[in-house]
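Structure ticket #2291
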Amino acid sequence: MSQAAPQLFDRRRLPLIITVAILAAVLGGFFLFSSLYTEVLWFDQVGYLEVLLTTWGGAVAMFLIGFVTMFIPVWLSINLAYRFRPVYAQLSNELNRYREIIDPIRRVAMLGIPALLGLFSGLGSANTWPQFLLWMNREPFGTVDPEFGLDVGFYIFELPVFSSVIAYVSTILLLSAVGAAATGFLYGAISITGREVRISRSVRVQLSIIGVFYFAAQGVNLWLQQYEAIVSASSGFLAFGAGYTEVNATIPARAIMAGIAVLVALLFLVTAIVGRWRLAVVGTALYIVSGLVLGLGYPGLIQRFQVDPSARTLEAQFIERNIDATRDAYGVADIVEINYEASTDTSAGALREDA
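Resolution: structure written out below.
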C-alpha cells in the first residue's frame, strides 16, 4: 500500500500538470505571437519590413548554425568515446556506483548534454548576425594600412569574423575533448592509479586528433592577432593602434607563437600515431612558456626599458601614422596648410565704442 499510494497520487496529478503546461505554452505563445506581429505591422507601415525580416532571418540562421556546429562535434566525441570503451575494464567501486546512476539515463544524457551546449551556443551565436551580415556585404575602403599593406576594410569587416570563428572552433574542440575524456574516465578508458595514468588506444587517438585541430586553430588565431594589434589599444604612448612595441615586439612574437602552435599540433599527430604522450606534453609546456615569455615578458621589457625612456623619438613615426589615418577617416587628407601674414584694419578703442 505504501508503494501504490504515491503512484496513484502521481497519476491523479498528471492530467492537471499536463493541462497547466499546455495552458502556459498557449499563453506564452500568444504573447510572443502578438509581440512579433506588432513588430511586423509597424515595420510594414513605415516601409522597412525587409529590414526586420533580414534581422530576424540573420538571427535565426546564426542560431541554427551555432546549435548544429556545437551539437554534432560534442555528440560525436562522446559517442565515439563510449563506442570504443574497454569492454572488460576493471573499475573502482566509486566509478561503478556512478555508472549505476548514469546508465539508466545514458541515452538521454548523451543527447541532452550536446543539445544543451548547442542551445547555449545558438543563443550566443544569434547575437552575432550583424557582424556576419557586414562581412557578407563588405566593400573595400580603397585605403591600405602602412604596416601590412592590407585594405582598411579587412580590419573592419573580415578580421572580426575570422577571429570570432577561430575562437568558436577552439571552444568546440575543448568541449569535445572534455566530453571524450569524461566518458573515457567513466567507462574505464582512462584510469588513474596513484601517479600512473593509463589511457586506452582509442581515447588516446581521439584526444590527440582533437589536440591537432586545437593547436592548429591556435596557430591561426595567433597569426590573426598580428593584425589585431593594428586596431587594438596600444601599450605605449599611443592610445590606440600599433606603436613601436607592437610593431617591433608584439607582432613578431605572435608570428613566432603561431609557428610554435603548429609545431605542437604536429607533435599531437605524432602522439596519435606512435602512442607516446611525452612529445605532446613537452610541446604543450613549450607553448605555455613561450606564451609567457614572448607574449607578455618580451613586449613588456621592450616597452619599459627601450620605449618609455625615448617615447617621443621612437613613437614619432607611429604618431604620424595615426594622424594620417585620422585625416583619411574624416576626409581631410588633401587639405593643404598655407601660412600667411594676417592683416587687420582695427584701431585702438574700437571694442569700447561698440560696447
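Closing remark: Residues 1-9 have pLDDT under 50 and may be disordered.
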